[in-house]
């Protein structure tokens, strides 16, 4: 059975002090969320350790937003999966469109990052999604399929069982524009079918596929009601504990 997950991606927001307070607020309200729903907070590197001290052994998971594509060594400014693991990181967002667009995150690099994360026992939250011009050209299925094939298809079935997928149409991220529930369901079903074509229907059925892109309390219910949408990867609305929790209560 796949898990229902609501994950926050704080991106490059909050100071450590603000982030610790936000984590405390999320923790305080987390009891309101249904038992079957897993919460994850995706925080900046500097926040991982202090936030891990707040969420402790609660049901809230800890995610980084990136990792190095090398295990260790002379790579100034990079953060390895071993470092992430050493501060209690359980998940890592990989392939976010902002990293693909601004930081030359290629599929080649992502293959290396995914393998390193999985080897370290960190579950990747692997993001896919098309740009507006690609959707308008009717290319969205092909774009998402290629993103999956180039990275996820390099994994073993055992590795794939530890991956969470997030569909984030670039045109809906931070724009206030959300994919309609029909648009999101259509492509989530396609993602699951693509995963099944390589790994079989059991693994595909068990893969959690999150929707991301201006997901908020007012639209989460409709999105989460779709059969192939298993939760959300939340940007802006994860910076307010009340909104984040309201989204997690939308199943
Ligand atoms: P917004 O929820 O701010 O649109 O961001 C979505 C996102 O990019 C999550 O990773």
Q: Would you tell me which CATH topology applies?
A: TIM Barrel
Find the CATH superfamily: Aldolase class I
* Structural class by SSE content: alpha/beta
Question: What Rg, in angstroms, do the CA atoms define?
Answer: 17 Å
Strand order of the largest sheet: 7-6-5-4-3-2-1-8
The level of helicity is: 40-55%
Mean pLDDT: 97
Residue ranges: pLDDT <50 for 5 or more in a row?
A: none
Small-molecule binders here are:
1,3-dihydroxyacetonephosphate
In whole angstroms, how far apart are the ends? 16 Å
| CATH architecture grouping | Alpha-Beta Barrel
Number of domains: 1
Number of helices: 12
Strand content: 15-25%
Helices and strands, in N-to-C order? EHEHEHEHHEHHHEHHEHEH
Per DSSP E runs of 2 or more residues, the count of β-strands stands at: 8
CATH class designation:
Alpha Beta
Query: What's the story with the biggest beta sheet?
Result: 8 strands, parallel
Shape: globular
